Amino acid sequence: MISALLLVLVMAQDTTAGKVVYQKWCAGCHGDHGAGDGVAAKHMIPPPRDFTGAIYQIRSTASGNLPTDADVMRSIDEGLAGTAMPGWKERLSERERRDVLAYIKTFSTFFADTSLKPQTLEFGGEPSGGTSDEALKAGRQFYDSIGCRKCHGDLGRGDGPSSPTLKDDAGHPIFAADLHQNWLFNGGGSASDIYHRLRTGLDGTPMPSFSDLLDQKFLTETELWRVAQYVRSLSPAETPVVRDVIRAPLIERALPRAPDDSAWASVDAYWFPLVGQVIRKTRWFAPAVGGVWVKAVHTTDSIALQLAWDDRSESPDTAWLEHVSRVLSSLDQDEPEQAALWPDQIAVQFPVTIPTGMERPYFLMGSSSAPVSQWRWASTARTAAVAGLARGLERFDPASSGGVGAQATYDHGQWRVVFTRALASPDTATQLPFRTGRAIPVAFFAWDGSNGEHGSRMAVSTWYFLALEEPVPARVFISPVLAMMLTLGLGMLVVWRAQQKTSFRRQQ
Fold first, then answer.
1. C-beta of residue 373 within 8 angstroms of C-beta of residue 431
2. CA distances to 335, 439, 465 from 358, in Å
3. Which of 320, 374, 440, 483 is most exposed by smallest CB count within 10 Å?
4. In whole angstroms, how far apart are CA 405 and each of 255, 297, 302, 346, 419?
C-alpha cells in the first residue's frame, strides 16, 4: 500500500511546473542550468550544489551512489544547516516541492540511468546505554583509531592538524565540522543522524564513509554507533535557547579577571548566535564563528564579562594561509586581495548612555551622528583591550583612558576572553556608566583571521540586554523575620488567653 502511494506521488511530479518553481526560488543560487553558478553563488562558501554531477552529501545510500527521492526531499524541506540553503517546507506546498525535485533531477543524466537505481543502506537500530561512561569511553577510543581527530581535532572543535588543508572536490575551502555545535550539522544532529553520516560519508567533501571498516571487520556496528554517540555527547543536551537578557549577579568575592577563575563555573552562560555581515560592502556570507557564550558578574564597583567562542585556529597562523588564499579566490571582489596573517578579534558594544526606552543606536557599529561604545580585543595582544567609540564600520576612535582590562586563553579550538572595567567611568563621553537594575543594550562582533576575516568581513549579532542585579536590601530579609515573630507572638497570645478562659471556667 505504502509503495503504491509513493509510486503515485512520483508519477505525479510535474517537471514543467517544477521548472517554474525552480526559476523563481532556486536559480539565483544554483543557476539556470543547475550548475551551482547562480548570481548569488559568488558570495557563498560553501557554494550552492551543482546538480549536474548528481553528487549529494546527505543521503541514505552508500558513498558514490545516487540519493533517493526522500533524501533530496529532506534537504529541500529542512535545508542544510551551516550553509545558505534554507528549508522550504513552510514556504512551498508539497506539490511544488515534489515538482521542483523532479525538475532538479533532469539536470543530470545519472538519474535517467535505471541501472543506477539508489539502494538505501541498512542502518540498524541504536544500541542502548550510549550515554554511559563505558560507552562514551569506547566511542572516544574509536574516534581516535579511525582518524576523526585528524580533521575534527582532539576535542572535536574542527581544529585537527589536517583542518587547514581541507577543500571539497571542486577545490573550494571547507571546514571540518565543529562537533560541539550539533544544531549546525548537515543532515541532523542526533546520534542516529551522525551514525548515518559515518556510514554514507559526505560525497564531494573530505568526509569519508566508514562502511568499509564494517565490511573489513575492523569495527562492529555497535562500535561505530559508539563513535556517533560520543560525537553527540560533545554538544549540549539541548540546542541552546537564545535569551534576550544576560543577568549579571552581584558577587562578594574578588572580581574574576582570568578566564580560568573557578568563580565562572557557577555563573550562568548565555548563547548568542552570530551571522555574516551582509548589509555593507564588503559583505560576508561565510563567517567562521557561529556564536558566542557570555557570562557576566559584578561587584559593587566593577564588572567582568567572559566571552567564549569556538575557533579552529589561533590566528595569526601561517598554516592557514593556503586556506585564506582559497577563501579570497572564491569571492567576487572588485579588486583581488592577497592573503595575510590577520588576527582573531572580538568586540562588545554598548550605547554611550543607557536609553530610557527601547530606542537604541544602529546595531552595526553605530553611525557618525549616533556613535556606540565598544571594547575590542585582538589575539595579537592577549592581555590588552581597547575601548573607544565606533562611528560606523569605517571609523573607530580609541579612547585615551578606556579603563578596560582583558585576559585571554586559547585551548583546543576555543577562545575565552574576560573583559573587566569599573562600573563608573571618568570618560562618560565615550564610555557607558553601568547602572544596576537597568536593561543595558549589548551586542557582539567576531572575526576569524584564518578565515580571511577583517574589517567589514565579520560575524555580527543584534542588540540584546545586560542586567546587573541590584543588592538585596536588608529589609527584604528582616521583614519576613519580623512577620514570623509577630505571627508567632500573636499565636502564643491566643493560646494563652484560651488557656486562661479554660482555667477560669474550671474554677467556677
1. yes
2. 41, 9, 11
3. 483
4. 12, 15, 11, 14, 6
Contact criterion met (CB below 8 Å) for 189 and 232 = yes
For residue 72, give the C-alpha cell. 533530496
* pLDDT exceeds 90 at position 25: yes
Separation between Cα atoms, residue 309 and residue 410, nearest integer Å: 10
Which H or E run includes 69?
helix 69-78
What is d(CA 446, CA 460) in angstroms, rounded to the nearest whole number? Answer: 7
Task: Give me Rg for the CA atoms of the chain.
Answer: 29
Nearest of 116, 139, 121 to residue 199 by alpha carbon: 121
On whether the CB atoms of residues 442 and 466 are closer than 8 A, the answer is yes
Sign of CA dihedral 494, 497, 503, 508: negative
pLDDT, average across residues 130-136: 96
DSSP labels, 303-362: EEEEEEEE-SS-SS-GGGHHHHHHHHHHS--SS------PPPEEEEEEESS--SSS----
Q: Which pTM value belongs to this model?
A: 0.87
Residue 461 main-chain phi, psi, to 5 deg = -120, 170
Rounded CA separation 456/193 (Å): 36
pLDDT at residue number 439: 94
Residue of 41, 454, 460 whose CA lies nearest to 277:
460
- Nearest in space to 312 (alpha carbons), one of 199, 465, 152: 152
Torsion of CA 367, 368, 371, 374, to 10 degrees: 80
Q: How many Cβ atoms sit within 10 Å of the Cβ of residue 80?
A: 20
CA dist 456 and 355 (Å) reads: 27
**Mean pLDDT across the chain, nearest whole number?**
90
Residue 494, pLDDT above cutoff 60: no
Q: What is the largest CA-CA distance in the chain?
A: 113
pLDDT for the residue numbered 506: 52
Asked if pLDDT for residue 233 goes beyond 60, the answer is yes
Q: Where are the alpha helices (DSSP H) in 208-256?
A: 211-215, 221-233
In angstroms, rounded to a whole number, what is the distance separating the alpha carbons of residues 448 and 343?
7
Helix-then-strand count for the chain, H and E: 12, 14
Interatomic CA distance for residues 420 and 398, integer angstroms: 17
Tell me the one-letter amino acid at 92.
Answer: L
DSSP 3-state of 134: helix
Strands 302-310 and 291-298 turn out to be antiparallel
Q: Which three cell numbers stand for residue 183?
A: 544544531
Contact assessment for residue 79 and residue 85, using Cβ atoms and an 8 Å cutoff: yes
Q: How confident is the model at residue 151 (pLDDT cuts 50, 70, 90)?
A: very high
pLDDT at res. 46? 83
Q: Which of 187, 162, 188, 194 is nearest to 176 (CA)?
A: 162
